[in-house]
C-alpha cells in the first residue's frame, strides 16, 4: 500500500474515531442503566477483537491491507448510521461486537502495513514514531474540534458527519492504485 | 468495471444514510408511568382539547384499525395508560370546570381536572369533596377509571358519589351514563381503566367542609380490629380514618398508630381556613431517604412520624385540608431504583392472622418496604371490577426496588407470595399497580373478570381502547 496515502487514511480514521468516541461513551452509558451493562458492553468489544485478530491476521496476508482497511471504513460508515437511532441495550451489545471486529481490522492493518514497509533496521523506530506523531496529531485536532462542533451540532448529526467521513475514506481507498504487497 | 461495483455501494450507503436520518428525526415517543418501569414506544401522544377533536381521533383510529390508550397524570403503574404502538390521549389539558352549583352541592368537571383544582374552586363556598385519594394530585378521569377510595369511612368508592358522566364510546358517539341511563356502563367504566371509552366529563356530589379534630393513638395490631369497630365505625362523629403499621425493625408488623378525624362543632367560619400548602419537605424527605437504605433510617422515620402524629392530636383541621396530604416529599428519582405501590384488601376480621402471615413472609424474604398505611373500605360491589367484596382494610405499601430485571423478578416473587397470603384470607388487591400478580391471582381476586371481558368485547368489538393491563390479564 502506498505509504503516504496510508498515513493520510490512518490520520482520517483516527481523527474520526476520536471525534465520536466520547459521545459514543455517553450514549452507551445513557442507554444502559448500570455500570455492569456498561462494563459488559466494553468487555464484549475487547473480547470480540481478541478472537477476531486470529482470523484477520490470515485474511490480511491473503486479501491485502487495502481491502481490509476498506472493510473497516465501510463497516464503520454503516454502523455509525445505526448508532444515533439505537434505543435498546441489546442492540448496543451487538454494535459493540461488530465494532470489536472492525476495530481489530484497523489495528491489525495498521501494524501489517508498517511491517511491510522497506525499512532499514536502524530507522524502524523513527518511522513508527513518525507515523504515531502524524496520526496522533490529527486525533488531537479531532478531539478538540469535536468539543467546539458539539455546540453547533446535535450528537446525532456528529455521528452522521463522521459516518460520511468514513465513507469518503472508503472511496479514497477504492480509487487508490493498489500496489503489490510484497516487493 | 471498478466504477460499476462502486455504484451500488454508494447507493446502498446513501439509502442507509437517509433511512437513519429519517428514523432519527421521527423517534417514536416513549410513554411510561410514575414508576418508570414499563417504558414503551407508543405511536404518538395527542393532547385532547375538545370533544369534537376527540371524536375525530376515535373515528380515525377505527378507520385505520389503530388502538388508543387514555392517560391522565399516569400514576397508575401497570401499563393502564399506554401500550406499544398505540395513540395515547393526554387528557391533562382537558381540564375545565363546566358547571358548579354550590347550593345543590354538585359539580361537573372535564376529566383532566385535578382534585386540587376542584378544592381551589369549592373551598370558598364551604364545600369539600366526598371521596378522593389521600392526595389531591390526580385527575378526576384517572381516579374514576380506577374507582378510587380514600380516607373517608362514611362513603364507599368514588363511584358512590358520581351522579353521571359522559362517555365517548368506541363508535365515536357521546353517551350519557348514570344509574338510570346505560346502567351497565355505569358499573363498567369506573374501575374500567379506560377500556370502554373516553370519560369526557363527570358530575358528582360534594359535601360540606367540616372541622375535624385529629386524634392519634398508638396501639398493638391485635387490638386494632376491635378498636376500629367500637371506637371508629360505631362512633358516628369519626368521619375519616387512617392507620399505620411499623415496617421498621422496631415493632415490625406489630406496632401501629391510627388517626381519626372527628367532627367537631367548632364555630370559626371554615371558609376562612386557607388550603394548606406543602411547605416542610426537607426533613421528611431526608428521613424517607435514610429509610430507603438502612434499618436505622427506618427506625428513625417510624419514631419521627409516630411522635409527630401523636403530638398533632387535638389540633383542628378542615376536611379540605385533610384531603390534601403531602406528596412532594415522596418524589423520587434514581436511575437504577424506583418506588412502587401495592395495595391489598383484607376482610376486617382477618386482619390479625393476616398481619401475622405478612410478618412471617417478610422475616424470611428481603423486600424494601418503606411504609404501609391502612384505610377502610366498606363493601361496595357497584363496579364490576370491584375490590371491596366485603368490609375491608386496605393496606397501601410503598416499596423501593432496583429496576434491573433480576431485582424485578425477585420483587415479583415476593409480591406474589404477599398476594397469595391476601387471597388466602379472602382478600383482593388493587389493580392500578405494577402487574406482579399472575393471571390466576387476578381471576381469584376479581371473579367477575370474565363478564368484564365479555362486556368489553360487546362495547368495543374492534378493541380500539387498549392498554398493557388488558393485554396482561385478558388477552
Q: Which term fits the overall shape of chain A?
A: globular
Rg over CA atoms of chain B: 24 Å
**If helices are DSSP runs of H or I spanning 4 or more residues, what is the number of helices of chain A?**
6
Counted beta strands of chain B? 19
Helix content of chain B: 25-40%
| Low-confidence sequence ranges of chain B | none
Largest interface: A-B, 19 and 18 residues
The CATH architecture term of chain A is Up-down Bundle
Rg calc of chain A: 17 Å
What does this molecule look like?
The complex is a heterodimer of chains A (183) and B (475). Chain A has helices spanning 3-31, 35-63, 65-82, 89-116, 124-149, 155-175. With 183 residues, chain A is mainly alpha-helical. Chain A is globular. The model of chain A has no long low-confidence stretch (mean pLDDT 85). Helix content of chain A is 83%, strand content 0%. Chain A starts with a helix and ends in an 8-residue tail after the last helix. Chain A has a single domain, classed as Growth Hormone, Chain: A, CATH 1.20.1250. Chain B has 475 residues and is of the alpha+beta class. Chain B has a domain at 211-438: Alpha-Beta Plaits, CATH 3.30.70.2520. Chain B contains 14 helices and 19 strands. In chain B, the strands form 4 sheets. In chain B, strands 15-12-14-13-17-18-16-19 form an 8-stranded antiparallel β-sheet. In chain B, strands 6, 7, 8, 9, 10 and 11 form a 6-stranded antiparallel β-sheet that branches. Chain B has a 3-stranded parallel β-sheet with strand order 3-5-4, with no helix packed on it. Chain B starts with a helix and ends with a helix. Chains A and B meet through helix 3 and helix 6 of A and helix 1 of B. Chain B: Residues 37-209 form the FAD-binding PCMH-type domain. Chain B: This is FAD-binding protein. Chain B: Pfam families: ALO, FAD_binding_4.
Amino acid at each position: 500500500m502506498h505509504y503516504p496515502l496510508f498515513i493520510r487514511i490512518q490520520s482520517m480514521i483516527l481523527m474520526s474515531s476520536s471525534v465520536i468516541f466520547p459521545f459514543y461513551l455517553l450514549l452507551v452509558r445513557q442507554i444502559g442503566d448500570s455500570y455492569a451493562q456498561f462494563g459488559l458492553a466494553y468487555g464484549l468489544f475487547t473480547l470480540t477483537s481478541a478472537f477476531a485478530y486470529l482470523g484477520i491476521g490470515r485474511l490480511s496476508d491473503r486479501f491485502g491491507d487495502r481491502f481490509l482497511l476498506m472493510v473497516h471504513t465501510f463497516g464503520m460508515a454503516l454502523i455509525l448510521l445505526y448508532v444515533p437511532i439505537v434505543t435498546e441495550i441489546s442492540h448496543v451489545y451487538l454494535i459493540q461486537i461488530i465494532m470489536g471486529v472492525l476495530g481489530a481490522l484497523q489495528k491489525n492493518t495498521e501494524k501489517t502495513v508498517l511491517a511491510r514497509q522497506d525499512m532499514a533496521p536502524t530507522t524502524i523506530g523513527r518511522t513508527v514514531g513518525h507515523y504515531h506523531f502524524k496520526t496522533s496529531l490529527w486525533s488531537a485536532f479531532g478531539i478538540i474540534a469535536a468539543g467546539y462542533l458539539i455546540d453547533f451540532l446535535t450528537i446525532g448529526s456528529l455521528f452522521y458527519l463522521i459516518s460520511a467521513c468514513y465513507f469518503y475514506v472508503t472511496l479514497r481507498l477504492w480509487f487508490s492504485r493498489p500496489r503489490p504487497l510484497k516487493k | 468495471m471498478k466504477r460499476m461495483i462502486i455504484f451500488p455501494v454508494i447507493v446502498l450507503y446513501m439509502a442507509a444514510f437517509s433511512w437513519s436520518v429519517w428514523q432519527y428525526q421521527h423517534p417514536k415517543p416513549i410513554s411510561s408511568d410514575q414508576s418508570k418501569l414499563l417504558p414503551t414506544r407508543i405511536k404518538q401522544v395527542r393532547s385532547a382539547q375538545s370533544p369534537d377533536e376527540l371524536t375525530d381521533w376515535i373515528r380515525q383510529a377505527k378507520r385505520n384499525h389503530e388502538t388508543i390508550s387514555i392517560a391522565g397524570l399516569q400514576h397508575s403503574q401497570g401499563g393502564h395508560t399506554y401500550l406499544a404502538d398505540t395513540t395515547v390521549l393526554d387528557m391533562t389539558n382537558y381540564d375545565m370546570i363546566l358547571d358548579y352549583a354550590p347550593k345543590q352541592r354538585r359539580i361537573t368537571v372535564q376529566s383532566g381536572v385535578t382534585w386540587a383544582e376542584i378544592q381551589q374552586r369549592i373551598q370558598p363556598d364551604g364545600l369539600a369533596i366526598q371521596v378522593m385519594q389521600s392526595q389531591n394530585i390526580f385527575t378526576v378521569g384517572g381516579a374514576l377509571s380506577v374507582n378510587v377510595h380514600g380516607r373517608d369511612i362514611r362513603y364507599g368508592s368514588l363511584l358512590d358519589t358520581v351522579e353521571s358522566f359522559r362517555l365517548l364510546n368506541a363508535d365515536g358517539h357521546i353517551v350519557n351514563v348514570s344509574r338510570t341511563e346505560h346502567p351497565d356502563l355505569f358499573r363498567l367504566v369506573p374501575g374500567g381503566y379506560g377500556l370502554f371509552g373516553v370519560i369526557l366529563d363527570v358530575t358528582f356530589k360534594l359535601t360540606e367542609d367540616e372541622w375535624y379534630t385529629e386524634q392519634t393513638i398508638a396501639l398493638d395490631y391485635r387490638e386494632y380490629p376491635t378498636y376500629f369497630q367500637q371506637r371508629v365505625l360505631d362512633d358516628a362523629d369519626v368521619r375519616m380514618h387512617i392507620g399505620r403499621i411499623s415496617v421498621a425493625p422496631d415493632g415490625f408488623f406489630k406496632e401501629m398508630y391510627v388517626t381519626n378525624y372527628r367532627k367537631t362543632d367548632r364555630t370559626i367560619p371554615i371558609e376562612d381556613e386557607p388550603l394548606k400548602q406543602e411547605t416542610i419537605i426537607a426533613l421528611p424527605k431526608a428521613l424517607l431517604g435514610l429509610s430507603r437504605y438502612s434499618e436505622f433510617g427506618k427506625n428513625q422515620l417510624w419514631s419521627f412520624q409516630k411522635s409527630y402524629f401523636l403530638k398533632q392530636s387535638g389540633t383542628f383541621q378542615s376536611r379540605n385540608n385533610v384531603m390534601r396530604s403531602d406528596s412532594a416529599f415522596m418524589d423520587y428519582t434514581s436511575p437504577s431504583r424506583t418506588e412502587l405501590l401495592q395495595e391489598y384488601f383484607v376482610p376486617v376480621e382477618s386482619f390479625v392472622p393476616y398481619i401475622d402471615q405478612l410478618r412471617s413472609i417478610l422475616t424470611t424474604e428481603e423486600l424494601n418496604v418503606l411504609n404501609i398505611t391502612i384505610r377502610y373500605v366498606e363493601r361496595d360491589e357497584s363496579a364490576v371490577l370491584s375490590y371491596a367484596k366485603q368490609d375491608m382494610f386496605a393496606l397501601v405499601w410503598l416499596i423501593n426496588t432496583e429496576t434491573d430485571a433480576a431485582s424485578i423478578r425477585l420483587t415479583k416473587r415476593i409480591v406474589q407470595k404477599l398476594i397469595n397470603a391476601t387471597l388466602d384470607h379472602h382478600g383482593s388487591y388493587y389493580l392500578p399497580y405494577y402487574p406482579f400478580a399472575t393471571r390466576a391471582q387476578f381471576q381469584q381476586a376479581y371473579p367477575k373478570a370474565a363478564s368484564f371481558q365479555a362486556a368489553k368485547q360487546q362495547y368495543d368489538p374492534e378493541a380500539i381502547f387498549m392498554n398493557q393491563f388488558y393485554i396482561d390479564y385478558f388477552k
